[in-house]
Amino acid sequence: MRTLHRSGMFALRTLRQSQQMLLLSNTQSRRLSTHVSVIGLHWKTDETRLRQVFEAYGTLETAHLVTPEHSSMHLWASVVFSTFDEALAAVSELNGQELDGRLLRVGIVDPPVEGESVADDTS
Questions:
Q1: Membrane-spanning residues where (predicted)?
Q2: What are the angstrom distances between the C-alpha of 36 and each of 26, 39, 54, 70?
């Protein structure tokens, strides 16, 4: 399991872990995350391009680029789908794929805790 050390300290689930989550009961599956983190975006990638790519996998509730505080850090994005199945499809197809010349790391993340900002950094 990898951990983002920025903005919310989300723990990325591997594709295998995400697929195993499908085996949960219906009650549990309603709580599965629809939040997807996209790491390694090129600086020329904008929100319009981001939406075009991810809308192919389902209905987007939100799609936002997150600009890092330091120019040495990579641009990343937060994408929220309507359903877990849509989020899983995007992760399955896009993780490790190239977009605008950069290899993407795409994974399902835990949603932010209510009252906690995605941009909060408690370190």
A1: none
A2: 21, 10, 10, 22
Structure tokens given for 74: 């990579």
Distance CA 84, CA 107 (A): 12
- Stated length of the chain: 123
| C-beta separation of 8 from 116 below 8 A | yes
Q: What are the pLDDT digits (tens) for 46-104?
A: 999 999 999 999 999 999 999 877 766 778 999 999 999 999 999 999 999 999 999 99
Residue with tokens 């075009």: 52
| Dihedrals phi, psi of 109, to nearest 5 degrees | -125, 160
How far is it, in rounded angstroms, from Cα 45 to Cα 102? 10
Q: Quick one: which of 38, 34, 40 has its CA closest to 18? A: 34
Q: Model-level pTM greater than 0.70?
A: no
**Pick from 82, 76, 47, 78: which is nearest to 61 by CA?**
82
